[in-house]
Amino acid sequence: MLRRLIMTVIAAIAVGLLVFAFSGPTTNSGPARPAAVESVFPFPGNLELRQVMIVADLAPGYTGYLAIDGNEVPEDDVQIVDALNTVTLKPGPGSDFATLEPGSHCATVFYRQIGDPRESSTPYRWCFRLH
Predict the structure, then answer these.
(1) Strands 122-130 and 47-48, sheet pairing
(2) Is the terminal CB of the chain with fewer CB neighbours within 10 Å at N or C?
(3) Spatial CA neighbour of 89 closest among 98, 69, 71, 123
(4) pTM confidence score
(5) The domain containing residue 48 runs over which residues?
(6) Which tens digit of pLDDT belongs to each residue from 62-115?
(7) What gap in Å lies between CA 31 and CA 29, rounded to an integer?
């Protein structure tokens, strides 16, 4: 009887530890996003593979451009899908953004309403880690 109780407690602790180990930040937790930025990926604070796509999903009626680690991404390395209001890093061969090194990185989407001048863009920054 005592042995069965001890085994049950050990199993419960093991399950609890597994749940805790895999409950890292996998949701879009982080600084509050403005209404114009519906979502970003990778999620703020997450650890992701180096091949991950960096995406900002903007609200309808908005457009924007990206910067990675404070460096603006050239238009040739960005894919903008107007119908989805997404801005995605899509670096070409030889681009400075073709491979991001492991470690911490921060992305910034500069967003504005469609038709507004580029100078009126507002930044939203989020950070993540790559391995």
Answers:
(1) parallel
(2) N
(3) 98
(4) 0.74
(5) 28-130
(6) 999 999 999 999 999 999 998 899 999 998 888 888 888 999 999 999 999 999
(7) 7
